[in-house]
Write a structure and sequence with these properties.
With about 300 residues, this protein is an alpha+beta fold. The protein has helices spanning about 30-45, 75-90, 110-125, 155-170, 195-200, 205-215, 220-225, 255-265, 270-275; strands at about 10, 50-55, 65-70, 175-180, 185-190, 195, 230-235, 235-240. The strands form 3 sheets. Strands 1-3-2 form a 3-stranded antiparallel beta sheet. A 3-stranded antiparallel beta sheet has the order 6-8-7. The chain starts with 7 loop residues before the first strand and ends in a 22-residue tail after the last helix. Keywords: Cytoplasm, Metal-binding, Methyltransferase, S-adenosyl-L-methionine, Transferase, tRNA processing, Zinc, Zinc-finger.
């Protein structure tokens, strides 16, 4: 709606509509492809010949859409502006007008047909003058978005939940012993039991659950964030046994060595402090500090 001479370039990334997150409507397409088609449809409704290009940038979202030419003469600008106004209102009220035809960006004739068909549908519903306010009641996102991935929760609250869940797993069943050779002596180390996320949640108090529900992912995200202590697989929570940990194959060997050296002994070992049997690894093998004296 800026002006008839306006051109545009857009690089779609996050899946948002005019007033919130974009809702998928076609399961046969990927979410990304469907969203690109939606953005292209917006351009067609606004009377543009929409072109698609792929940028040479290091990103998975690198398909851009460009509008350089109009599909109608300047004399029809006022008429098309009414069409665009109604389209915006329909998206705002979720009474979305959809186009059954697939968007073929490389065929101008088909693009013209889409625009004319969409325009006739919209102009039947809206014949009054265009509203000077494009988006009445529009609420932009906050300048500073709230972090809701459990990372901003108070440390004492997180530590309390971690200790509660760990004790729950350790006491859920008779002790499961695992052999560990340490200095030639055979020791046992309690791995505890595995429980489903639902079972774990049932043992937490209401205030804790309410606080976690306000975060994205809730309890599962908090437990995964504390990967030193827990392993969450297929909806079940386990105590992590560091003797079984293997380095990821995705990381290059030299990067692994550098990262392991930089992070070695920079945090206290949770098991050394809280586990009834201590850490399953000897001090020289554990990547975490066994006591404040080892901290780097």
């Amino acid at each position: 709606r800026s002006s008839y001479s306006c051109c545009y370039f857009v690089l779609p990334c996050c899946f948002f509509d005019f007033h919130g997150k974009y809702s998928r409507r076609q399961s046969k397409k990927t979410q990304y492809r469907e969203y690109l088609d939606f953005i292209a449809q917006v351009g067609l409704v606004c009377g543009f010949h929409v072109e698609e290009d792929c940028l040479r940038i290091p990103s998975t979202k690198r398909v851009s859409l460009i509008g350089k030419k109009r599909t109608y003469p300047p004399t029809d600008y006022a008429l098309i502006d009414k069409q665009i106004t109604q389209y915006i209102k329909n998206r705002q009220t979720c009474a979305v007008v959809t186009c059954d035809r697939s968007v073929e960006l490389n065929h101008r004739d088909h693009s013209d047909d889409v625009c004319k068909e969409m325009g006739s549908q919209l102009l039947e519903k809206e014949t009054e003058a265009a509203d000077p306010i494009w988006m009445p009641g529009f609420q932009p996102r906050e300048k500073v978005e709230q972090i809701r991935n459990c990372a901003s929760l108070p440390r004492d609250f997180v530590d309390e939940v971690v200790l509660s869940v760990a004790n729950l797993l350790l006491n859920a069943a008779p002790q499961k012993s695992c052999s560990n050779m340490d200095g030639g002596n055979m020791n046992t180390w309690n791995q505890g039991e595995s429980l489903s996320l639902k079972e774990v949640a049932e043992h937490l108090n209401k205030d804790t659950l309410k606080r976690l529900k306000s975060e994205y992912g809730g309890l599962q995200t908090l437990l995964k964030n504390n990967h030193q202590v827990f392993e969450v697989l297929n909806g079940r929570v386990h105590i992590r046994d560091w003797r079984k940990e293997k380095p990821s194959r995705k990381t290059k060997p030299e990067v692994k060595r550098r990262l392991s050296t930089e992070a070695f002994k920079t945090r206290l070992c949770w098991f050394f402090i809280h586990h009834p049997d201590g850490c399953s690894l000897p001090s020289e093998s554990c990547p975490y500090a066994h006591g404040t004296g080892e901290l780097r």
